[in-house]
């Protein structure tokens, strides 16, 4: 009896706990992702590690990771996943004018990035103003995404926080819902500012 109890205590219970933890992790968090590049700087830095949660309930302001091989026709060799912020969801309009980003005609609260990135960074090579129609008519986007005025069904318009260096929806078009791997969560030891900018931005999205 003691041997059976010892076996259960030393082997069965630990294995059971391990399996339970694995099930929880694979159900709610698919893996740990290492940020590659500076497109989400200063909120997420190159080589930082973050958690990715499986979810289909994405909101404006959420930071997501998606399979860029299915989205960016000019993806660099060796790249696979992009991490960007959801700016607009299906049915939304997006426009930028003189340093202000608008979704459905409402000013977006971009306190999560610097004024420099809000202005010059967001303008990038597209001038002081743009909208979905002008961006999708540049010839840069995937053919299926061109000549759009609103975000299509089951799609997202995404931008990197470091707008001046980010390769995002301005350059390749919309991100399909089916190619989104999950939503980014930052570990508890990250600063309160970063946690607010990544996890709580949707709570105060419009200015």
Protein architecture, described:
There is one protein chain. The chain is α+β, with helices and mostly antiparallel strands. Helices cover 26% and strands 25% of the residues. The protein contains five helices and eleven strands. Strands 1-2-11-3-4-9-10 form a seven-stranded antiparallel sheet. The protein is elongated and about 75 Å long. The mean pLDDT is 86.
Write the layout of secondary structure elements.
Blueprint: H1 2-28, E1 29-34, E2 49-53, E3 63-67, E4 81-89, E5 94-97, E6 100-103, E7 106-107, H2 115-123, E8 129-131, H3 132-136, E9 155-159, H4 169-172, E10 175-176, E11 180-185, H5 192-199
Antiparallel strand pairs: 1-2, 2-11, 3-4, 3-11, 4-9, 5-6, 5-8, 6-7, 9-10
Number of strands: 11
For the biggest β-sheet, the strand order reads 1-2-11-3-4-9-10
The helical percent reads 25-40%
User: Which stretches of 5+ consecutive residues score pLDDT under 50?
Assistant: none
Structural class: alpha+beta
Chain-averaged pLDDT? 86
Report strand %.
15-25%
User: What is the N-to-C order of secondary-structure elements (H for helix, E for strand)?
Assistant: HEEEEEEEHEHEHEEH
Taking the alpha carbons of the first and last residues, their distance comes to 68 Å
Main pleated-sheet profile: 7 strands, antiparallel
Please tally the helical runs, counting DSSP H or I stretches of 4 or more residues: 5
Measured on Cα atoms, how large is the radius of gyration?
20 Å
Globally, the shape reads: elongated
């Amino acid at each position: 009896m003691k041997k059976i109890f010892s076996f259960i205590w030393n082997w069965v219970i630990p294995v059971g706990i391990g399996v339970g933890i694995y099930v929880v992790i694979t159900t709610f968090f698919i893996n740990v992702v290492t940020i590659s590049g500076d497109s989400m700087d200063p909120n997420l830095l190159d080589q930082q590690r973050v958690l990715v949660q499986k979810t289909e309930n994405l909101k404006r302001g959420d930071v997501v990771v998606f399979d860029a091989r299915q989205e960016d026709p000019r993806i660099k060799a060796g790249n696979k996943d992009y991490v960007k912020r959801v700016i607009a969801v299906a049915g939304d309009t997006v426009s930028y004018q003189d340093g202000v980003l608008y979704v459905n005609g409402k000013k977006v609260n971009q306190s999560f990035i610097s004024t420099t990135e809000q202005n010059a960074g967001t303008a990038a090579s597209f001038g002081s103003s743009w909208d979905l129609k002008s961006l999708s008519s540049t010839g840069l986007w995937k053919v299926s995404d061109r000549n759009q005025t609103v975000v299509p069904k089951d799609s997202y318009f995404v931008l990197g926080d470091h707008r001046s260096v980010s390769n995002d929806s301005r350059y390749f078009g919309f991100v399909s819902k089916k190619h989104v791997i999950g939503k980014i969560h930052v570990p508890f030891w990250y600063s309160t500012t970063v946690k607010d900018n990544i996890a709580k931005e949707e709570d105060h999205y419009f200015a």
